[in-house]
């Protein structure tokens, strides 16, 4: 399933207190991730399912985005495309 992932880039060597979120470079990629797995049924018949795990989204962004060595994506959100 295709997901649109938005993220910001934490440059290599930047600590958690060394930046303002608005100053980080933003990016967006389309990535193919596993379909959500059904885990149960809610009252009313709606199927409850969970989407891809955060670590899988991070790995997909590393593979799809043009990040410099040591850069880390900060995932903002991911939604079906």
If you had to describe this structure to a student in words, what would you say it looks like?
With 81 residues, this protein is mostly beta strands. The protein is 14% helix and 43% strand. The chain is built from one helix and five strands, in the order E-E-E-E-H-E. The chain has one helix spanning 54-64; strands at residues 2-10, 25-32, 37-41, 47-50, 72-80. The strands form two sheets. It has a three-stranded antiparallel beta sheet. A hairpin with a 5-residue loop joins strand 3 and strand 4. The longest helix has 11 residues, at 54-64. The protein is elongated.
Features:
43% strand, 5 strands, 81 residues, three-stranded antiparallel β-sheet, single chain, two-stranded antiparallel ribbon, mainly beta, 1 helix
């Amino acid at each position: 399933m295709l997901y649109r992932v938005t993220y910001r880039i934490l440059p290599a060597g930047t600590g958690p207190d060394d930046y303002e979120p608005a100053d980080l470079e933003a990016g967006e990629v389309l990535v193919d991730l596993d379909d959500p797995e059904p885990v149960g049924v809610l009252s009313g018949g709606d199927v409850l399912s969970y989407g891809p795990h955060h670590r899988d989204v991070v790995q997909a962004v590393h593979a799809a985005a043009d990040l410099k060595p040591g850069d880390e994506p900060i995932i903002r959100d991911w939604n079906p495309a």
